[in-house]
Design goal:
The structure holds 2 protein chains of 2 kinds. Chain A is mainly beta. Chain A contains no helices and 8 strands. In chain A, about 0% of the residues lie in helices and about 50% in strands. The termini of chain A are close together. Chain B folds into 3 domains: about 300 residues, Thiamin diphosphate (ThDP)-binding fold, Pyr/PP domains (Rossmann fold, 3-Layer(aba) Sandwich), CATH 3.40.50; about 200 residues, Rossmann fold, CATH 3.40.50; about 150 residues, 3-Layer(aba) Sandwich (Rossmann fold), CATH 3.40.50. Helices cover about 40% and strands about 10% of the residues of chain B. The longest helix of chain B has 27 residues. By secondary structure, chain B is of the alpha/beta class. The chains are: A mainly beta, B alpha/beta. At the A-B interface, strand 2 of A face helix 17 of B.
């Protein structure tokens, strides 16, 4: 199992919003595939699946998560 | 950085060579008989007559400048006369090939271009349309004056109307085409396709480019012509404009069906001299001007060199370029070689060229040569040319006699209405937005970024009264975004561009998500060409578009100085109030980036008459003021503080309304009430002023904090009313104090609030030196402790407070050493 956390995005940024899941919960994803877009107040970045496997979404679109929060597990 | 375009290393790194510098030079060789067969002898003779009109018209101006007398008409003309004697074939040949609804944007030497285009339009428009045009201009008054003074009708009346309206404008008379506000170098009359001439060399290139953008988008089949001289190829903004007109995205990314470029013809009237500097061989690197097109795009701008001494060669080339432009293959460039037989101006002593050289070109005088060509072809009788010349001279004399007669062309009576010229700067009108969504705009719900915006809290305060983080509540950035998005999605005329405005959403994310729902032709990434960004905005607005452009950092205003100061600010007034220029220029003021990225230049912009200036400090104000700016028919500069983009709304209990609203310009707002001191703040200075007010309140001093919100216009009354109660006035700004708007406001309040003041007004601004780096910034921009220090020292010296800030310098001593 691999975790997908909110990365450190800058020295003044403490949290980010989950803008869009590109794949639904339970989808089979491939390592390196963009699975989610997260946003700070001035930028959006896409996060890639850190491993291949089944995507288990933990934080829903629209929710705000602090840096380090696990957004999903790859099983 | 659109993801549609792959930067493929296997392509970019492949060994190859660029070929194909294939530029036609003087290729015209159509036999005159073929031209006669194609156009008819009458139209060619008409060309000759138009050239004679221009020659005589300019000869008249030259005579007035030199002798104060033309054909026994005495007149003192004080204005400029940049004549094009010898260049008439270039102007007339071009106008011959243009459609009446094509639009030319002139140079400073544009009498010939203006007259040629006007005369060609009159020759080709139906008489009924000419009548409509003359009836519509100034309620038909100019037509009536010309008809009374010169006694002709039909097409002849229209020619008299053109000559009279233009000459009256050159002489700055009240019934000149632009009410006397344009003059020789700025005259225009759009109904004949004569858009503004421009006294700034090369300035029409960017404006005509923006005009062509609008024409592409409305698909009206017309083109624009950017007239410039050869010397203009030395101007950076001209290069910016040519690139802007030929950007790769038109063909590769835009889905509007408009082809791979903008329908603009860069028409260089190449008379070999930039005033007194010789272009080819001396001041420029090119040998042939047409060579520069190859430096711009793979099409080489279809550039060629043509013989500007032969109107038919020019007409043939312009007709070919026009065909390219209307099929979406623009822009194009023509290097039209001709020779100015007269001086640059009446003070030109020809020190830079020889008599022999002038003589060589006099031998190919385009008028005499064309008359000889027509005579040799048997379509012009031997004495017909001379008779035509005499007839033209009588006509110009009659028009001149009428224009110098104040009964027909009265001077502008400024004394009778001293602020009249000032009131022409702004129309103060606003547009109404259509209620339906504009075509081609996607559903905001399809954009993750816009969905995120919709989820945010409207107020920036929690129920406990604590400030919310910017990710959870509407920020100043979001307020701007909501106002802009509302206008973008409802007003098809509004087009936005700037550097990385699209996918990136602008360097500070105001447009984030917009590219998900707006097509490229409504929102696009521009090159790093600040001059072209603003000039194109001006041209786009002149043609009925509405422009929203961004400069990323206000420090880059210098790169667009002429375009902001001389074009955007001036054309409404120089048109005599006939033209609307709905342009919104966004400029963000940075911090933490040092001397070239953190300057508050509000003082610079407010100094220039003709620009409305806005500087919001709260999300609520940002949304409402931006909406007003976008609805305004007047040009507006919106300053945005990068430090405030993440500010949430803490003043309005209900937060920022979801629905659109507008805040009228000119009204400062009391953000905190107080009885002892009035502090006016500009932009982000609001927040340290409020912090200072909270601290002073502990000491028993209650400060009234007023947020200026807009600087032009500005209603001083709320400030004066406050000062009448408090008796003490300070103003806080992040601009360097010398020459700032704050100094203007302090002087005005000192004068009009003098009776109530117990101490002189105090300006608390940035010092007159560079913005230092991030770690030293608090020593530069006024902080709360600086404000407390100034208030205590200037207004309450008996309280004997300890100074805590760094600002205990001696202003007068600093001024003596230039600081």
């Amino acid at each position: 199992m691999t975790l997908l956390p909110v990365p450190q995005l800058g020295n003044e940024i403490t949290e980010a919003e989950v803008s869009e899941w590109f794949r639904p919960d339970g989808a089979e994803v491939v390592q390196g595939e963009p699975v989610v877009s997260i946003s700070t107040t001035k930028m959006a970045i896409d996060l890639e699946a850190p491993a291949s496997g089944k995507l288990r979404i933990l934080i829903a679109e629209g929710d705000i998560a602090e840096v380090g929060t696990v957004l999903a597990r790859i099983e | 950085m659109p993801k549609e375009l792959l930067v493929d290393p296997s392509v970019s790194r492949a060994k190859t060579r660029l070929e194909g510098l294939d530029i036609l030079v003087h290729a015209y060789d159509t036999p005159i008989d073929d031209e006669i067969a194609a156009h008819g002898a009458d139209r060619l003779i008409e060309m000759l007559r138009h050239m004679l009109i221009i020659r005589e018209f300019e000869g008249m101006l030259a005579a007035f400048k030199a002798q104060g007398m033309y054909r026994e008409i005495a007149y003192t003309y004080k204005g400029p006369a940049h004549l094009s004697i010898g260049q008439e074939a270039a102007a007339v040949g071009s106008a011959f090939a243009l459609d009446p609804d094509d639009h030319i944007f002139g140079s400073h030497r544009s009498h010939g271009e203006f007259l040629a285009k006007g005369l060609a339009a009159i020759a080709r428009l139906p008489e009924a349309r000419l009548a409509d045009i003359m009836a519509a201009h100034d309620g038909g008054r100019l037509r009536d004056t010309v008809s009374t003074a010169l006694g002709r009708d039909g097409r002849a009346l229209a020619e008299d109307f053109l000559l009279f309206g233009f000459l009256a404008e050159i002489f700055m008379k009240a019934n000149g085409f632009n009410g006397g506000m344009g003059g020789s170098m700025h005259a225009f009359f759009p109904p004949f396709g004569c858009y503004p001439n421009n006294a700034i060399v090369g300035a029409s290139a960017g404006i005509a480019t923006g005009a062509a953008l609008r024409r592409r988008l409305v698909r009206d089949g017309g083109i624009t012509v950017a007239h410039a001289g050869d010397g203009a190829t030395g101007c950076g903004p001209v290069w910016e404009a040519m690139n802007f007109a030929a950007m790769g995205q038109y063909g590769r990314l835009w889905q509007d069906g408009g082809g791979r470029g903008l329908p603009v013809l860069f028409f260089f009237t190449n008379n070999f001299y930039a005033m007194g500097g010789q272009t080819s061989g001396e001041t420029m690197a090119w040998d042939r001007l047409s060579r520069i097109g190859a430096g711009i795009s793979p099409t080489g701008l279809h550039a060629e060199t043509v013989d500007g001494a032969n109107p038919l060669a020019v007409a043939e080339a312009v007709a070919r370029k026009r065909r390219l432009l209307v099929t979406g293959d623009g822009p194009a460039l023509l290097d039209v070689e001709c020779y100015r037989l007269c001086g640059h101006s009446t003070t030109d002593a020809n020190a830079y060229r020889t008599r022999e050289e002038i003589k060589l070109w006099e031998d190919i005088d385009p008028i005499r040569r064309f008359a000889e060509t027509l005579e040799a072809a048997g379509v012009l009788a031997p004495q017909q040319g001379e008779a035509m010349r005499q007839d033209v001279a009588r006509r110009i004399a009659a028009v001149t006699r009428a224009v110098v007669d104040p009964r027909h062309a009265p001077p502008v009576d400024v004394a009778a209405d001293p602020t009249r010229i000032g009131r022409l700067m702004f129309s103060n009108r606003h547009t109404t937005l259509p209620t339906d969504r504009a075509p081609g705009v996607g559903d905001p719900a399809a954009s993750a970024a816009l969905r995120g915006l919709a989820r945010k809290a409207r107020s920036g305060l929690t129920e406990a009264g604590e400030e919310m983080p910017p990710l959870r509540a509407i920020t100043l950035r979001d307020g701007l975004a909501e106002a802009i998005l509302h206008h973008m999605t409802h007003d098809e005329r509004l087009v936005a561009w700037g550097e990385e405005c699209r996918e990136w959403g602008g360097a500070f994310g105001v447009y984030r998500g917009f590219s998900d729902i707006l097509p490229h032709h409504r929102l696009f990434n521009s090159p790093i060409s600040e001059a072209a960004i603003v000039a194109a905005a001006v041209g786009h607005a002149m043609e009925g578009g509405r422009s929203l452009v961004e400069l990323m950092y206000a420090d880059f205003i210098g790169r667009a100085g002429d375009e902001i100061f001389n074009q955007m600010a001036k054309w409404q007034a120089m048109s005599g109030g006939q033209m609307s220029l709905p342009v919104v220029l966004r400029a963000s003021i940075g911090s933490k980036y040092g001397a070239q990225h953190s300057q508050d230049w509000t003082g610079l912009i407010t100094h220039i008459p003709g620009l409305k200036v806005v500087y919001p400090a709260t999300p609520y104000d940002a949304k409402g003021l931006m909406a007003t700016a976008l609805a305004s028919e007047d040009p507006v500069v919106v300053f945005e503080s990068q430090r405030l983009y993440d500010k949430v709304e803490t003043f309005r209990p209900d937060g920022v309304p979801v629905d659109p609203y507008r805040i009228a310009f000119g009204t400062p707002e009391v953000k905190r009430a107080g009885r002892d001191v009035t502090i006016l703040t500009i932009g982000p200075a609001l927040y340290p002023a409020l912090a200072a007010a909270a601290e002073l309140s502990v000491a028993g001093i209650e400060v009234e904090v007023i947020d200026a919100r807009t600087l032009v216009p500005f209603d001083y009354q709320p400030v004066l009313d406050s000062v009448a109660r408090t008796g003490r006035f300070a103003i806080v700004t992040e601009a360097s104090e010398r020459g700032s708007f704050a100094q203007t406001a302090a002087a005005t309040v000192a004068r009009h609030g003098f009776a109530h003041l117990v101490a002189p007004p105090r300006v608390i601004g940035a010092p007159n030196w560079i913005v230092p780096g991030a770690d030293m910034e608090t020593t530069y921009f006024p902080q709360a402790i600086d404000i407390v220090d100034a208030v205590m020292a200037d207004f309450f010296p008996d309280h004997r407070a300890n100074r805590r800030g760094v600002r205990d310098w001696d202003e007068l001593a600093l001024a003596r050493v230039g600081l």
